[in-house]
Structure formats: structure tokens, C-alpha cells
Amino acid sequence: MFIVLSKAVVSVLLGALALLMAFRRPVIASFLDQSRRPWLLIFWVVLRLIPFVGIYLVFGFTPQSDVANYYYPIGLSAKALEVPYRDVVNPYSPFYGFWMAIPLLFWNNTKALVLFLTLIEFLAVWLTYRTYDGLLSRGERLFRALFYLMLPVPFCMSVLSGQEDVMLWIFALLAIVVLKRYNNDYLCGLLLALGILSTKAVFILVLLPFFLLSRRPIPFMAGLATLGLPVFVFLYLKTGVLFIEQPLLEGAYLKAPNWASVLHPWISGFTNFELSIWNYAGLLISLLVGIQTLRLRGQHDYRTYFPLFYIATFSIMTVVQKNAIANYAYLFMLPLVVQMLDFRNRTALVLLVLFNILAAVHPSFWWRIGQPYYQSVSEILSRPDYMLDYGMELFIIGYLLYLVVKAQKLLKLPYI
């Protein structure tokens, strides 16, 4: 339980500091706006690099979980120019291993992967900061970047867990900017193809709705095909259908929290969530919610409607996928802070921080109490840690549904 307690203490401290900072936002934003220092780099050094050095180099901790079990062997395989899926088990997209191989070329250690992923996150923050130039003041953009970096979910997922989910936002953001700012449908398609080949299968939930956004479908599909088609043919010739089967296997596991884990104690007698049909139902619901959110965009600027679409899509996905875990909050936390969050609403601020604390701690807590998948309400009530776990699950799921509703509500407001 040391990991759980460590994450809990760090998350509560970061959450408290983030709240205190939010209550002083006008003063801090004004100071950041007036000072011409490289603040984003300073934020990264203080909130990512120094913790990394302390945890992994000074105290000598070793990255565990996905970093050790997946990223490292997949990266080593790519470094040796082996074929993904055939030569190494890979639940991610085919190019993912080659991204992981980059830091291993310089430092053959799992710690290099965590450091590299903090740099990937820094790139996401910088791109978002640049994208909102002209829509938000410099001080406001810097403050939101700082607030994001202090939240428990980004900190724990980046520094402590070495998660890669923020990569999806990078490719999605680049694609929408290229499409709407530069009107380049072909390059948009190319970037989306690179995105789905570099990250994981759920990126399809971002890719497909772009068919609604593209005004020139032929160049758009040509961009997708330029990269996607040869990779598909190569993988089929080399691996058969392993490149489809291995990512799908990850979706077969029952995890928590999601609608299956929350509902199962109440309806386990007549519902079998182990059936694969629930995976496809979840993906369809996620896709439909995303498309519906886009249809509400009206005359809103793409920097308003696209992040809300992205937040709604992955919030509902985290609810309806039976293998979803709270880690997925990392997928959309950056656009949520930069675009959706209203710092004047203190209730929303407190709820966001509380959600971050619980989402950062719950995966480790759930794992260390035996990954319970409750068969009945009486099982939940049989142990205090089960009751705590189920209470956390209910709050996390409730907040995710709140985000879906809020995103669509904001798009219904008149364009200013």
C-alpha cells in the first residue's frame, strides 16, 4: 500500500496547492503576463524534471506497470527493427514502439521512457499554449498551463506512472489546426493516419468524426490512405491479423471504474459484461456522443468546439468501455483545463480537484485490494476497503457524465 499512500499524499498536496493558486488567479496571471521569462520551460523543470530526478535518480525507484511490462519490451523490439505483433506482444499501434525506441537509443533504461513521456507532455502543453494565442491572453494561457501541470492526474500519470495518453491530444490538435487554420485536408488526413498508427485504437473515435469536419473528402481520404494503406498491407503480410487481435485482447479485460463495474453488483444475475458485444456497444455510444457534440458546434471557433468534442468523447468512452480505468482522465485533462474550466466557478474547481485526487489514486488502490469486480451489493458491504473503492468509482463515473453534459451545454450557448 506504500504506492497508494504516496500517491494519495502527493495528490492531496498538489490538489490543495492548485486550489490555493486558482483562488489567486488574477494576481498570478498578471505577474506571468508581465514577466518575459520562459515560463513553460520553468514549469516543466520544477513540476516534472526535478520530481523525476528525485524519484528515479536520487531515491532509486524503478518504473513499474505499463512502462516495464509493455513500453520497454516494445521499444527494445522496435530498436532492433523487429516487426510489431509478430516479434513482440503489442496492445498499442504499430508505430508506438518506434516512439519508445527514441529515448532507448540514448539510455537503455525504463527511466528514459518516463523522462521521454514528460517531454511529450511538455510538447502537448506548448502546442496548446500556442494554439490559444489570440483567444486567451498570455498570462491566462500560462496560468492554465501551470494549473494543469499541478493537478494530480497529470502529475501522477506523467511522472509516477509514465502514461502516454496525452499523445492522442497532440495528433488531434495538430490535425484540427491544419484543417481549420490552414485548410489542408490532405495533411490533416496524413496527421490523423500518423496519430492512429502511433498511439492506440481508441484514436479512431477522433478520426472518424473528421469526415464531418472536412469539406474536401477526397484529399482528406488520400491523406489517410497515403500512410495508412501501405502500413496496413505490410502488417497483414507480416503478421496476418495479429495487429488487429492483440489490441482487441486488451479490451477483453474487466477493469474499473466504468458502467460495467458500477452496475454489475446490481444486475449480475441477468447480464454478462464479459461478452465482447459490450466493447462494440461502448465504442458505438462513444462515437455517437462525439458526433452529436460536433453537430452542436454552430458558429463556434474550432478552438472552442473541438476540445469540447474531445472531452465529451473520451469522458463517455471512459464510462462505457468495460476495460476503462481512471487513468483515461489523462486523455482530456489538458483541453479541459485550457478550454472548459471556468475559474470563477469555485464549485466546479473543487469538483475538478477532487476528481483528480480520486482518479490519480484509484487505479493503484483498486489493483492492490485485489482488482475486485463485485458480484453483489452484499460483497461491497462486506469490507470497508470495498465500500471505499465503490464510492470512488461512483464519484468518478458521475463526474465523467457531468463533463459530457457540460461540454454539450457549453456548445448550445450562443457564439460570441
Automatic annotation (TrEMBL):
The chain crosses the membrane at residues 39-59, 88-106, 112-129, 141-160, 166-183, 190-212, 218-237, 277-296, 308-336, 348-367, 387-405. Keywords: Membrane, Transmembrane, Transmembrane helix. This is Gpi18-like mannosyltransferase. The keyword Transmembrane helix applies.
